[in-house]
Structures are given as structure tokens and as C-alpha cells.
């Protein structure tokens, strides 16, 4: 790990103790020295129970997520980057520019303080990348065996860009469905790391910020009907959710969807369908057909969305809203919601 | 428990399983049927990754807290009421009227769904009491032994009332220190419940909403310099934190501070000082001397602050900021920050 040294003397305080959550001197040191050193800014420096922040006129987008990923680090990311990008991406999906983040830590007794410092630095860097300030925080400590190292919550506030609502209720038959890149990397990167899968080339999570790419789309004045990141449950679940809320069906072409070979192989090993595996840097966009090419041109300018494609269309629902995949052989199958978990604790 | 029956058939789904966190059909049912039945409102019904909310002109107050209290229920409250009142009270301490709350759940596999339903109903009732809408949520499930039933995060947004900042940097020598009621009940209620202390009359937590009382103070046009709720670390810690940030000292009169007899007895049993024990419905206010009587008159109109008193004064710091207690015998002692935990997991 490169970066500034931990401001707490690790020889003396190597790990989190229950005292760090007690509200006394140890808590104050953790907040002042460790969180303060990484996150410090003029707003946070109000040092009060609530932070007063200026906001632009107009509506705000709000999103909250807790993160319980195991293991804490994996190729391409860690719980800290996941927590910041995850919430910032959700704000972007709401058609908003991230402004502020809150961060709340549930630490397990025995967590190396060095691990906490590493994640705090990761979070600060990620927050800077998405353009958000961390304005409030909280720390709790639970006894050994009542957590798993570190759980995070991030809640985000964003300024809505543009005047048309962006969401599943705006989706309509005829919309074109764009998918921003290859699928399944995050879930399989975490699973491979957790299970110690020996791969010649490890699978890298796609964990990253979608903010710049989405803002470029929104600010180009395209009529974006809906945006949805393809996290827990993957593309298939996202499409089903949007279909259910919008009362439309969708037809997706398998040949348009990219899955890296090693991701496909890992999915086979675990018996998983990559279309249901979580991504953390991929989204779908629903746009008017006449805007599709321009949208793709914009997205392809950003590395994280360089492989964006037109992958399907929205159809009127004949009966219950249905998501259908047209295979490379011309056959079709319904992509239904799965019952339970495919992959626990991947975010 | 009175109230509507759980909308999920408990005979079929008695407990939380990993599948409830997988993003598939079980997750959707939990969100639609259980959370939707309790929390549903027009904003939440956008059903999107981020919720777009209208906000009034002017600055907002933001606060976040995670809750890991053990046991989940105790006389006078439970994790659900604590989570809503705790964050709403923090917003009030920032001089703001609560508008919106987000709620995030970390559920342990095996948690009875009935327990979750009970807490969700408690949260909805508490949110209505503080005047806030629940606008976003999240659910994660961790394996048995990686949590402790239920951890919560609530993050709140409030509209700042009045034009003067309220916070520790506004405190100045000469300010009068008000304390809103008797001390130590929440911490000792939780400890007594956790340790199975057999008391003739159980200690009831003071867990409750301070919002109405604080808004009345702020809206009366009093010059309120600072408000601080007396949670983790109790009165002594809150006064030390404010002293440190404001660069002032404080002198508090022990005879003005009320501690219920049974709370005092329980503190003796556990070897604790009630001035360091957490409250969840108590706060301190720093006001100009000429406003003190009016402030007390206003506070005494509300049941939760009926016993508010003038308990001390702010003094210029002679050397490092210090909080001093003048005992009933006229002697003084310094109320320092404690090193580590007094009471783990009381919020």
C-alpha cells in the first residue's frame, strides 16, 4: 500500500478494541486522527451531531447502501471503493451529480487498524473521483464474532441534472436498451477471491465510477428514460425490476452481451449464469431509438463504458412483463427473477 | 405486539435466509411486501436506485448513525425507535427540522421475520412522530455468526430552522448550560436488560424524540448557541467535546443534575458514573443568560423535557478547556474524557 502512514501508532494500537466504540478518548482519537486525516474538510470540521451543508436549488437524489462484502479486498477493488462508487453510481442512476456522502462504520473488535486506514484512504480517493465530499460519519464497534471485520454504510445526496425524471416509470415500448460493458466481473472476482480459485489471470472486478459517463449523457441533452446499475442480481434482475415497474417487456440479444472468457469459465465452475452475476461498474440505459447512436458515441469516450452496446428493445407487455433473451441460435428463453441468493455478500 | 399482521406468511418463511439478501425474488418480496407495507409513500414508490426528493431553499442538515444495540429490545425502546429518534435528534441538534430518512438493514441469517416486522412498524411510527418520510432503503443479509440479529443505519436530512448556526463553535464564555432532564436511563436500561438484572421496577430508557421541544426553542427566536444530545459517553463526554471545539471551560452543579434512584443503584452495581452513561432523549443547550428562563419555560411544556434545568455556565478556558463538577458539598472535580468503553453496544 502506498500512501500516507497511519496517523495512529500501530505498535501501540494494532487493532480495534471495544473501547474505540465507547465514545471516550479512544473514539475521539479514531475520529480526530484517523478519519480526520483522511476525510477532513471544511464541512466535516463543524464537528457537530449534524452537519449543515449548502445545496443548490432544485430536487435532490438520495440513496443509501450498506456493504458487507467478503473478503474485504478482491482484485479490482475493496469494500471502501465499492461503498463510495456504489452509492455514487446509484445517484448517477437517479440522474444526479453526487454532492455529499455520509459514511458509517461497524467495526469488529480485532480488526487491524491498518486495514481500516487502508479503506479510509481508498474511500477518500474514490469520493474525490466522484466529486463528493464526505460530510458526516459514525463509528460503532461490535464484539469479536458479531461482525466480519468491517461493514460500511454510505448514503449519498446528489443534485438532479436536467429536468426530466429518470427512472423505471419513464420506460416505454420502443425504447432502446443500452448495456455499458461486459458482464459478471465483480461477482466472479469476489467469488474467486473468497473461494481461493487458482486462476492464471485473476478476474478483476469492474468496480468503478459511472458518474462521469452518466453526467456526459445527461448533459448532452439526450432524452434518457431510465438508468439502472447492474449490481446484485446482475443484468437479468435489473431488467426484470424495470419491466415490472414500467409494465413493459424487454427483448435482449445474447450476441450483443459480452462476458470475458475467464468470467464465463468461473461461472461454469460455480454453476452460475453470468447474466445474474453482480457488476459494480456497469449499467443499462433506456433511451429513444433516435438517441441511441449518439448515446453510444458519448459512452464510448469513457474507459469504463468504452464497450457500450445496443443490446435490446422494450416491447409492450403481452400479459405479465417479461424479459426474454434471444440466443445466438435464434431461440429464446425467459430471464426470470431467481428465487434466492446466487452469490451472498458480494457487496 | 398490537398492530397489523406481518404481510409475509410466517409459517412458510419464519426467518431471514441468505436468499433474502441475494437480490432475487425473496429480496423483492421482502422489499415489496414487508418494507413496502410499513414504509410505503409516494417518494419511495419511485422504486429506483436513488430517490428524487423536493427540498426547501436553504441549507440542509445531514446526520448518519449505525445502530448495534444489544439486546434489540429493552424497557422503553428498541433498535428501531433508537435508530429513528437518534438520527432525528441529531438533526434537531443541528438546528434542523427532520425531512427525510434513509434506512439500511444488515440482517443476520436466522433473524425471525416477526422481529423484523416489529421493528419496521416501530420505525414507521417513530418517523411519523418526528415528521420525516423514509425515502430510501437497503437490505443486506450476513451468515449466521457474522452479525447479531439486526444492525441498522439511519441517515437523515433536515431543513435548517433560523438563520444563526447552532453548534459547538458558537459557544462562548457566559453562556448558560441547560440540561433537559434526568440522566443515565438509556444506558442502564440496556445494561439491566442485557445482564438480566432483577429490578422491582425496571429502568425505562428515555429513548424519544426531542424534535418538537427543540423546534419550539428555535422557533421562539431565542439565540441558541449550541445543542448536543447526551448519547454515547453521556453528559460528561458531550460537555468535554463541546469544550474542546469551542475552546471554553464549563462549570456544572451536581445538585442540579437529576438521576433516578434506581438508575443510581444500577450504576453502583456496575461501577459506572451516571454522568458518563448514555441517554437517548436528553440534551444540553447553550444559551445567552438573558434567554435561559424563557428557554426553560418553553422546554417544560414538553413531557420529554419537562424537567429541564439550568445546570451550569461556560467560562473562559484557563489553559486547556476543562469541564468541572461542583459537588453538593462545594468541592470540585474535573470531568475528564474516559479512555475506552464504559458500555459497549448501547446504541
Walk me through this protein's architecture.
The structure is a homodimer of 347-residue chains. In chain A, helix 3 links the parallel strand 5 (96-108) and strand 6 (133-142). The longest helix of chain A is centred in the middle third of the chain and has 18 residues, at 113-130. Chain A folds into two domains: 25-160, PurM-like, N-terminal domain (60s Ribosomal Protein L30, Chain: A), CATH 3.30.1330; 168-334, Alpha-Beta Complex (Phosphoribosyl-aminoimidazole Synthetase, Chain A, domain 2). In chain A, the strands form three sheets. The first copy, chain A, has a seven-stranded mixed beta sheet. In chain A, strands 2-7-5-6 form a four-stranded mixed beta sheet, with helices on one face. The mean pLDDT of chain A is 95. Chain A is globular, with a radius of gyration of 21 Å. With 347 residues, chain A is an alpha+beta fold. In chain A, 29% of the residues lie in helices and 24% in strands. Strand 2 of chain A pairs antiparallel with strand 1 (51-53) of chain B.
Supply database-style keywords:
homodimer; 347 residues; alpha+beta; 60s Ribosomal Protein L30, Chain: A; Phosphoribosyl-aminoimidazole Synthetase, Chain A, domain 2; 7-stranded mixed β-sheet; 4-stranded mixed β-sheet; 8 helices; 24% strand; globular
